[in-house]
Amino acid sequence: MFQIQPSTSATKAEFYAELALQAEALIANERDRVANAANLAALIWHSVPDLNWAGFYFYDGRELVLGPFQGKPACVRIALNRGVCGTAAATRTTQVVDDVDTFDGHIACDTASKSELVVPLLHDQQLVGVLDLDSPRPARFDADDRRGLEQLAAVWTATLA
Ligand code: SME
Questions:
Q1: What sign does the CA torsion over 64, 69, 70, 75 have?
Q2: Claim: this prediction has a pTM higher than 0.90
Q3: Where are the alpha helices (DSSP H) in 57-124?
Q4: Is 134 in the pocket of ligand 1 (CB under 6 A)?
């Protein structure tokens, strides 16, 4: 059984470096993208504090479709350019939103969500999906969280064949 290690790190950057190592240990030897996304969502959910949703949307060539996640049931399909996830996907850039209520077009799957971090997932320069984290705390995500989650997203995309 995989044991999630409690963090001993002094800084957030160290915390995410440790988490990336745990993510590699958890998924690096497996090629099934859904299984790896499911385990990564669980690792993030149990390690990163103050979240109310953590998970994946996969790009099906037309729109984003809900993938493995932890948290409350969520919107199944999101058009590119819609909401924070669709914006991250369409622009292929990480979105950090301190106050989702001020984000034009934010899709409120859960009204408890106050801030959001969405990392686009790219493989061979092609969009394959997004990694989405929601928090009930406004301005929950800073530059360290952004870098840390981009690192974790890269661990996942590295497992794609
Ligand atoms: N809030 C997101 C939708 C997905 S849920 O947060 C799980 C958005 O605006 O894209």
A1: positive
A2: yes
A3: 83-91
A4: yes
